[in-house]
Known about the structure:
The protein has 460 residues and is mostly helical. 79% of the residues lie in helices and 0% in strands. The protein has 26 helices and no strands.
Amino acid sequence: MTAPDATSDLTAAAAKPDTKPAPTWRESMAVYLQPRVLVVLFLGFSSGLPLALSGSTLQIWMRELGVDLGTIGLFALVGTPYTLKFLWAPLVDALHVPLLTRVFGRRRGWLVFAQLLLIGAILLLALTDPARAPFMVALAAVLVAAMSSTQDIVVDAFRVESLPESEQAAGMAAYVAAYRIGMLVSTAGALVVVSAFETSGLPRPASWMWGYVVMAALILIGTITALAATEPAQSKLAEAEMGADTALTRVMHAAAGAFVEFLGRRDALAALAFVVLFKFTDAFSGTMTAPFVIDLGFSKVDYAAIVKGVGLAATLAGGFAGGFVARRYALATSLWIGGVVQALANLSFSWLAIVGVNQWALALAISAENFTSAIGTVIFVAYLSALCKNPLHTATQYALLTALAAVGRTYLSSGAGYVAKATGWPLFFVICVLVAIPSLVLLAWLQRRGHFAALGPAKV
């Protein structure tokens, strides 16, 4: 059963052209203070925070306890839920969370539900011991990744549906910058918190436990934001479109509509391969960056101080630089810029491996990596968002794309530890540059086929 005129409303909401003149500098800056952009900013922080807790921060915890590099590299596989989240994304698009959906709405109800489960999963991980019970650590880390990826499904859909055209560019920069800040807080911030607990006299296992408890509490920032936000208008229209359909029918329509519509596009498989490979250079090096710094002789406090200081500044600058590039240049040109600079930044770590323990060299390498990675991420998010066009299955389609993007981080990079052991650190980061070549070849091919021109303006 379909509400009258719901389909036409959805089409108009998704396809309405932008006829406004280019904003002035003052208008461009003021848009960052719009309530919807601020909501996206805080939700971006909540999305970025959990990733490192089952990734690089966990790896440092394990390395401090003497766990083998190869085993640490294999722990990248706990990110499997990020690559499979498209399987349950139709549930997010189609089903209601008892009580929460009725009280808060279709997207906000799922947001609150996912964040509460995520807090519980992080607390469970806090209670594990990487040295004595690696299986329990892996299980808890998988649960964190599963709840985090579910939160990502909802946040991505909420973001795509809630921002009007005039706030898209600001929302893109704010979301990615906040996401990266969340990652920095759960890496550098977590290390500072753990070190502070150790300094106060707590033993190392207890310090790590309480460090993760603090990280779990920070997820409440996203929960408070979800409670304060308003349900996106496009989500309400999509809810009316689904009408009184049964739960099973809703799920089937969400899943089938998302996959059939996307796979029916020209060069769909090549576009999906490009999605998998574009951030692979970042993922391959990022898997081993924290163990590399510790192995080089830096303390976790040194690493945390630099990542939190110059790393944070570089992330913010890179996020806004990426927003400028995405707005100033065509989508294909922007992807070329982002793809090349994020690959070449790996050479700064090769240089650091030769220089050795030097605070300035570490600061430069971390800054280069954070700045270029943020540029690439903003542009990549713009591309993914341009591929999602229908609010009936925004969550499912975006989850499919971001799940494929996580393949590089989870599976293709799982052997990075063994490569680093076999080659040594300087050559390893040169290899990280070379693994970007397949994505650039695909980028050139898709550009020749007119793939990017056919997408129209990128929406985030």
